[in-house]
Write a structure and sequence with these properties.
Blueprint: H1 4-28, H2 34-60, H3 70-86, H4 90-114, H5 120-140
Helix pairs in contact: 1-2, 1-3, 1-4, 1-5, 2-5, 3-4, 4-5
């Protein structure tokens, strides 16, 4: 039997990958720089691939995936559309994604601390997702 910390951590990671994909999708068509666009596309693919792995684990544990909260999705959508509506530059898009990455890293670290009894594999997934977010944030700094 799988412990509840494992399931909860995987569900939070699942919500995080979905939030990242949605955020990237919201800015991608506004990005003009081809290298930045490619960077975002690759990051989106990495998040989707990790999300697929998480989904498989959740199914194997007999549990459901988790969508980001409607409040988080709504706030993200509103912030993105307001900021991009005022200034649809690559710097604005990079700033929005960087803010999202930082929020994701903060939340994921909180969940890793909160769900201490999660199994090793789910903790590794959380750590991998944090690394992906940190790398994307670092890679976007030149566009800020």
């Amino acid at each position: 039997m799988v412990n509840s910390d494992t399931v909860k951590l995987l569900q939070e990671c699942d919500a995080g990958t979905k939030m990242a994909v949605t955020a990237i999708d919201e800015v991608l068509e506004s990005v003009r720089d081809s290298d930045m666009k490619q960077l975002l596309r690759e990051s989106r693919q990495h998040h989707e691939k990790l999300g697929d792995e998480i989904h498989s684990l959740l199914i194997s544990h007999g549990t459901e995936e988790k969508d980001p909260s409607l409040v988080a999705k709504g706030m993200s959508w509103m912030k993105t559309n307001v900021k991009m509506g005022m200034d649809d530059s690559d710097a604005t898009a990079a700033g929005l994604i960087t803010d999202g990455c930082n929020m994701g890293v903060k939340s994921l670290n909180k969940y890793l601390n909160e769900y201490k009894m999660a199994d090793h594999k789910s903790k590794d997934i959380g750590t991998k997702l944090i690394s992906m977010e940190e790398k994307l944030c670092k890679d976007l700094t030149k566009y800020l």
